[in-house]
Amino acid sequence: MLSPGPSGSCHAVDPGAAQHDRLAAEHDRSGEAVWLVAITCIRPEELAFKWSDLDVEKRQLWIKRAVNRGKLHTPKYHRANRPIQLTREDVQRLLKLKKQMKAGDDDWMFPHARKTGPIRHEDILARRIQPVARKLGMPHITWRLLRHWGTTQMVEKRVPIKAAQQRLGHTRPDILLKHYAHVLDESAEFAAEALSSQLSVKKAELEAKNRPKRSTSPSIGSQTAANSKRWVM
Known about the structure:
Blueprint: E1 2-4, E2 10-12, H1 16-26, H2 28-40, E3 54-55, E4 60-63, E5 66-68, E6 71-73, E7 82-85, H3 88-101, H4 121-135, H5 143-156, H6 161-168, H7 173-179, H8 181-210, H9 220-232
Antiparallel strand pairs: 1-2, 3-4, 4-7, 5-6
Helix pairs in contact: 1-2, 2-5, 6-7
């Protein structure tokens, strides 16, 4: 996870998947919201899911709406609807939450107290999530940092830029490249070493192949000496 530096900058601090799960366990719905933002890299306002937005068969969660201060609106991304691909484990985790909530397809995935609308992500962060994170000894958590953590993981794992762009909901790939240039710079060093080492190996193989071979058969003189020794004995 990325934690804010002294001047508002960010540096990498990864609390690990275990601490994410511990945070989720403290408060089922708000904790699951933290987990979902981290693994999908969605914006917090895009947590306005209904259970009907989950396609279990294709393992996709469709972003169809967003919410700010209780008001629903169109998501920021240039496509009104976009799918987020999930793993089988992710889908099972969501279905378990749905069963615990005794929810139907038309219900909100993360409802507020009255259950007539989605949670206000602005409120639960300060009131519920951050206090629990402090209790667990985790770094300061914000929705933005959770999203940055997921993005950094994708860049470090060499996820194709186009796939990462679509998951983040960026309209252009240069937005991703601009904000995560520091991670890409580190990857550039790795790329240089990988390519250079491959050519070095090939060069060594060619040199070994072209090097004159030393004869393994005995010389005439040595063979004659051996025969003479045999007759003397």
